[in-house]
Structure to design on (57 residues):
C-alpha cells in the first residue's frame, strides 16, 4: 500500500471522527451516523489494501 493511500484513508477516518463528534455535540443524529459511516468506509478500504499487499508478497 502506498503512503498516499495510507494518508488518504487516515484523513477520511479523521474527517469521520470530526463529523461524529460534531453530530454528538449538536445532537444531529444524521451527522453522527454519517461520521461513523465514513470511519467504517476508511477502515474497510485500508483493510482491502492490506489484503492486496498480502497477496502480492
Amino acid at each position: 500500500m502506498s503512503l498516499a493511500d495510507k494518508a488518504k484513508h487516515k484523513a477520511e477516518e479523521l474527517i469521520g471522527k470530526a463529523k461524529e463528534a460534531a453530530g454528538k455535540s449538536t445532537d444531529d443524529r444524521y451527522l453522527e451516523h454519517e461520521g461513523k459511516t465514513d470511519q467504517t468506509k476508511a477502515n474497510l478500504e485500508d483493510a482491502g489494501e492490506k489484503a492486496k499487499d498480502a497477496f502480492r508478497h
In short: The helical segments are 3-26, 29-56. The chain is about 90% helix and 0% strand. Residues 22 and 28 are 8 Å apart (CA to CA).
